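Before drawing any conclusions, I looked closely at one protein, both as residues and as discrete backbone shape codes, quoted below without any editing:
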Amino acid sequence: MRKLLLTFVFSLFGVLSFAQIEGKWKTIDDETKQAKSIVEIYKKGDQYYGKISQLLIKPANPNCVDCKDDRKNKPILGMEIIRGLKKDGNEFTGGTITDPKTGKTYKCTITRSGDNLNVRGYIGLSFIGRSQTWQKVN
């Protein structure tokens, strides 16, 4: 009976941690398939945010010159690119993601699949957008 209870507890912990997105993730460019940066996702209150903690490819400009908000002309390294995501079942949605290369901000939905995050940025409807797969950094 004790072994059964322990198995259940560890299984439950595994399921609960599976849907979490907190931690460091390697971003993979959807066009070139090359690793670009490490994004650290963290929780503030009931919302999730992500900032660039390491650049793996040196950008042409180290600042976000095309950003339209408080991030304009701020360094890309350390920039908060994910803002305001909320957990909704197995999805994290309702927030935004900013592409520091173009300065454009999109609505964002993230789902986790094993050691990968499926990150979708879109304008308006979610089927009009683009997706990237980010890999967990150990």
